[in-house]
Every structure is written in structure tokens, then in C-alpha cells.
């Protein structure tokens, strides 16, 4: 977990941009970078994220909002090499798991989740997922 300065959308977007903008992950034996699907917690944060990531070379990042990820065309899920959930809350864990199952076996990153480690024991069946 990487702490943010505050819980604002701006802080989350800036942290995500700082971490991912220069990150160059390549598949073994490939010259092309992996495609990352950034899954934002709400429409407002996603809009800010899209605007901030315009400075990054296109094609490396796709953006989608968590509540719509399973209801829209799955091209974004199918084309992603890595899924990154940005600041998901514990109330969103069921959807996070569904998306994770759809991405399997590709890597899934929970970036700055909005729960404490101590809370994970109370997640029931989902505690084994996180």
C-alpha cells in the first residue's frame, strides 16, 4: 500500500501518474510494453485520470470506471495485460473479484485500497481473494 497525501481524487490521480507514467514493463522476449487497464473507483476520478494520463504515450493505458467494467464491452478487459484497481473500497470487492476472475491469469494490482489490513478478516469469502 502506498499512502496518499489525502483522500481526494486529485491526490490519487497524481500518485497513479507518478507511479505508472515512466513504468516500462515488457513481456519476456518482446519489445512492446504491456497494456495496463486502470480501473478507477468513480466517474469523477476516472475523468481526472484520463486528463492527467494524456501526457503519457497513447496505447499503454486504458481507463474504465469500476461500476461499469462488467457491463460494457469486454474489449478493454480482453486487451489488457495488467489490471490496476485504483483505491477500491471494501464495498466494491465483489466487483473487483469478478473483474479479477475475468482477467485471470493476467496480473491484478490493488493500488492503495481503502481498507486496513485488520479489516480483511471480516470480508468473509472475499478475504481469501485479497
Automatic annotation (TrEMBL):
A Pfam family hit: DUF1995
InterPro entries with a match to the protein in the record: DUF1995
One GO location term (cellular component): chloroplast
Signal sequence interval, chain numbering: none
Domain DUF1995: 2-124
Taxonomy, superkingdom: Eukaryota
Protein name as annotated: DUF1995 domain-containing protein
Taxonomic source organism: Opuntia streptacantha (Prickly pear cactus)
